[in-house]
Design goal:
elongated, mainly alpha
């Protein structure tokens, strides 16, 4: 299998170009760059999310090459990254270079952003013809259709790409990702395993496999995938979290707690870690130990004005239950009322009301006594 996953931006040639440009900025000098170098620098910054830097290199490039098509196309690409597709369209229509593959590709991107997938496909086809089936352009088109959830068109272009480059790591990975995105999980497993036969240390493939097995509720197999990632990248926090999630789903509460609590030691304010530490204790009826974790999680969530109400209700329920089971009935009632104020129809809270409150108060929250 050919490892063609690296792009031009990973090359030494581009690294030298980038260094030359950024050195120029640092020392305040003026260096000549041809228009394609400017366009490549602008696209690199756009892809990297440094849109202000992209704008700056475009502005500099236009002082060197006023009205240059490649630089204007790069400017339109930067505008698209900001969501300004109408302004990008104006630029694309102002450029008179009908054989420019990047212009044809840009027009396809603009139409796709306007939900005109069929017209985008037409422009992309013309762009690929002009590029002589350039693999990089094929890759970009496939990714655009995948991001737009146009899976049929994505498969059409992948079929073409795999005929042209059947051993391409890049296209095989995109095909595996498409199977994943379209929930063809058994086929996705085969394709990711095929990639791992050649690239056993690529943690992305292990992560995708782990996610698939987790969705299939094969938590033991999923855990093994995340353990492979840990072996390759011992400090990978996401892999540790996913492994802990597998152990949690397997009801191995102590092993899951060991991971969650170690991660919590590194970030004491992480409400998710506090929640899961509490749940590991709660599931073992260790209410005294669970309670402070749930309280800490709630305190952090209360600082976020966009916290979903159902999360708050769940934590109020858990805290009320822990408090009641440890003789803290005042705290239990307080959290019970707070939860019911958000959602008076929450079944678990109403059940707790019957257990915690005097009968006359609990009756206020039963279905039979509702107005």
């Amino acid at each position: 299998m050919k490892d063609d996953s690296a792009s031009y931006y990973d090359s030494q040639e581009f690294a030298d170009l980038l260094k030359l440009y950024e050195t120029m900025l640092a020392d305040g000098s003026s260096v000549y760059f041809d228009s394609m170098d400017i366009a490549n620098l602008a696209e690199y910054y756009t892809i990297s999310g440094d849109l202000d830097k992209s704008d700056a290199v475009i502005a500099y490039g236009l002082t060197l090459h006023p009205g240059d098509a490649d630089i204007l196309i790069a400017k339109a690409g930067s505008l698209m990254a900001r969501g300004h597709k109408d302004q990008a369209r104006v630029i694309s229509e102002s450029v008179t270079d009908p054989d420019n593959q990047e212009l044809l590709y840009l027009k396809g991107v603009i139409e796709l952003a306007d939900d005109n997938a069929a017209l985008a496909d037409t422009w992309f086809t013309q762009a690929v013809v002009q590029s002589d089936n350039d693999p990089g352009m094929l890759n970009d088109i496939i990714v655009k259709f995948m991001d737009a959830r146009q899976f049929d068109l994505c498969q059409k272009w992948l079929d073409m790409a795999l005929v042209l480059s059947p051993d391409s790591r890049n296209f095989i990975e995109l095909q595996a990702d498409l199977f994943f995105d379209t929930a063809q999980m058994d086929t996705a497993i085969e394709w990711y395993n095929h990639l791992l036969d050649e690239f056993a240390y690529d943690t992305y493939y292990w992560e995708q496999l782990g996610r698939i097995y987790y969705e299939k509720t094969d938590y033991t197999q999923a855990k093994e995938c995340f353990e492979f990632i840990e072996a390759i990248e011992p400090e990978n926090k996401q892999a540790k979290m996913m492994k802990a999630g597998c152990l949690f789903s397997l009801e191995d509460w102590n092993s899951a707690f060991s991971i969650y609590s170690a991660l919590l030691d590194e970030d004491r304010n992480d409400y998710t870690l506090q929640y899961y530490c509490g749940r590991c204790m709660y599931e073992q009826d260790r209410y005294d130990e669970a309670l402070p974790y749930f309280q800490g999680s709630l305190e952090e969530l209360m600082l976020d004005n966009e916290t979903p109400e159902e999360m708050l209700v769940e934590l109020y329920t858990l805290i009320a239950d822990c408090a009641h089971n440890t003789g803290r009935d005042g705290l239990a009632a307080q959290c019970l009322y707070s939860g019911l104020a958000i959602n008076p129809d929450e079944p678990e809270l109403k059940e707790l009301a019957v257990r915690i409150l005097p009968a006359s108060d609990a009756a206020l929250f039963t279905d039979n006594n509702k107005d």
